[in-house]
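Record 1 of the preview.
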Amino acid sequence: MTDTMTEPISTRNLDRYGSAELPWSRPHDILAADTPEVDLTFFVATVRSDGRPHSAGVGATWVDGDLYFTSGPGTLKSRNLAASPACSVSVRLAGIDLVLEGDAHRVTDASALERVAAVYRTGGWPASVEADALTAPYSAPSAGPAPWYLYRLTLHTAVGVATAEPYGATRWDFAH
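->
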């Protein structure tokens, strides 16, 4: 698979200590190289119908320049995304903390499901496609029983704060 890097349409240096703006290639390249093989913990934040936030861990992977994650159909995050696709996904990568903001939409296309399931399998989760969702012998205890929905994040904004040299903090905005 070839990972395409979507270039930001604008960037803004958020660093208050004089560090240079960080290139988008820094978190992008780590996401492309480390998911799903490296043990990374991703958290998705959604919005409840009353406006309160909800955050939960998800199994996520970067495939062909997009972030995908899974969620059981009966979970609060899936119900929240059905009502409003706006969400953020946070992760601590090697040397940079990253928050991705955008809209998450359910993936039901068979070829896309199979492509992402194949990537999950390379990371050790034996995912397969069943109808318009993913299934496997196991998932996270909080995911509920299979099948699990697959979501693709349409990236609007990302914010990275470097935790290793070169330090800095940057906001990247993307066309959507």
